[in-house]
Amino acid sequence: DGGITQSPKYLFRKEGQNVTLSCEQNLNHDAMYWYRQDPGQGLRLIYYSQIVNDFQKGDIAEGYSVSREKKESFPLTVTSAQKNPTAFYLCASSIFAPITGVPGNTIYFGEGSWLTVV
Amino acid sequence: GQQLNQSPQSMFIQEGEDVSMNCTSSSIFNTWLWYKQDPGEGPVLLIALYKAGELTSNGRLTAQFGITRKDSFLNISASIPSDVGIYFCAGQLEAGGTSYGKLTFGQGTILTVHP
Fold first, then answer.
1. Do A14 and A115 contact (CB within 8 A), yes or no?
2. Which residue, A20, A61, A87, B12, has most beta carbons within 10 Å?
3. Could you report the per-residue pLDDT of A24-38, keeping only the tens digit for each?
4. B21 within 8 A of B32, measured Cβ to Cβ
5. Nearest chain B Cα distance for residue A61, angstroms
6. What value does the mean pLDDT of chain A take?
7. From first to last of its 115 residues, what are the pLDDT tens digits of chain B?
8. Contacts of A102 in chain B (CB under 8 A)
9. Distance (Å, rounded) from C-alpha B65 to C-alpha A20?
10. Are strands A108-109 and B71-76 parallel, antiparallel or unpaired?
11. From the candidates A27, A49, A99, which should be mutated to test the interface with B, based on the most B CB atoms within 10 A?
């Protein structure tokens, strides 16, 4: 089945540790995104990538890092510099970015990963 | 970053009632998307709007792209229990500037449907 796969679904991080969330898509989409969701809030963009080997900071990139070495993969590392990492993380992709005005080029989401600091 | 004001924040309705929610912005958008999110899952796209004034339906759902390009609404008719969830609007700003290529999301509307 085509889609976006995030793993793990649940992850616990100790203080001072870096952790990496995986995101894989087999939709042949050029663009990929990482969002963070906190309870009662909308989605906030962490990083996005419009093409392989290129990525841009979103609105809340501090304490996070990404790589885009392959078209289908866009892993997110939550570093120890991220002071409040407990949240629901969502990976997404689109055929290309921006999605502006092109029917069918919308953003599709994975099922999310829960990260908790213990 | 850019802000979308989504209202209402929450709704408690009886099964069979119609529902309406909307998003407004001080900026002009050229794409509006509406998503539904079930607890612990990723958002699922409901309707995508690409032109000012566009009115699009998807089953019991209807959404419109405001003619000012600064707002959009979503209506759900004859609600059923499985409509429960969080509904998000999202907009794509016009080309140009540092926000190009990024979606802005509303805060979400929590919908509860009583049988």
1. no
2. A87
3. 999 999 999 999 999
4. no
5. 12
6. 91
7. 557 899 999 999 999 999 999 999 988 888 899 999 998 899 999 999 989 999 999 999 999 999 999 999 999 999 999 999 999 999 887 665 555 557 888 999 999 999 8
8. 50
9. 38
10. unpaired
11. A99
Q: From the candidates A60, A107, A111, which should be mutated to test the interface with B, based on the most B CB atoms within 10 A?
A: A107
Query: To 5 degrees, how large is the angle CA B72–CA A49–CA A31?
Result: 60
- Closest partner CB to A106 (pick from B33, B88, B94): B33
Tell me the C-alpha distance between A86 and A83, whole Å: 9
A46/B contact by beta carbon, under 8 A: no
Tell me the β-bridge partners of B72.
B23, B65
Residue A59 amino acid letter: D
User: Is the distance from CB of A95 to CB of A54 less than 8 angstroms?
Assistant: no
Among B75, B72, B38, which Cα is nearest to B60's? Answer: B75
